[in-house]
Input
Amino acid sequence: MKTLKNTTNMPENIYYVEHASPVGTLLVAATDAGVSGIYFENHRHFKGKEGWHAAQDHPHLQLAIRQLDEYFAGTRQKFDLPLALRGTPFQRAVWDALIAIPFGQSTTYGAHATIIGKANAVRAVGTAIGRNPVSIIVPCHRVVGASGSLTGYAGGLERKAFLLQLEKAKRI
Output
């Protein structure tokens, strides 16, 4: 997956669709550049869809929904989508490294901080992970506490547990 950024000062149109999934209704968002958000119901840090445009037929949204359905069915372990993520350079580095965590595996916040070269910034890495706008596709659910405990997930710990169990059960 290649991440993109808006290089103009012009606001981008954001399109969305709501899609039923095993973890509840997902709000899938995209710009013309790529997928920009996957949000759960009651998603922490979601600012709302005011000014967004409902667009069931947007190609990035259709592709994201198809790949999410394949993921939940156990036939997809890696997403192949254009991403349009907005964040600071630090956040983007954290999110880009999340994509490399293999399906069905997990890592710790400390290990993830070390991977991006910021071993002493575990809390900042955790905060950036919590602000990941593209849940599931950018697999922040694969990051756990140092003891292996489930901690911090913007969609709720029950969803994090479900996703980890799904991957464990569907691992090829």
Observations:
- Residues 104 and 165 are 8 Å apart (CA to CA).
- The mean pLDDT is 89.
- Residues 88-170 form a domain with the Arc Repressor Mutant, subunit A fold (CATH 1.10.10.10).
- The first strand starts at residue 3 and ends at 4.
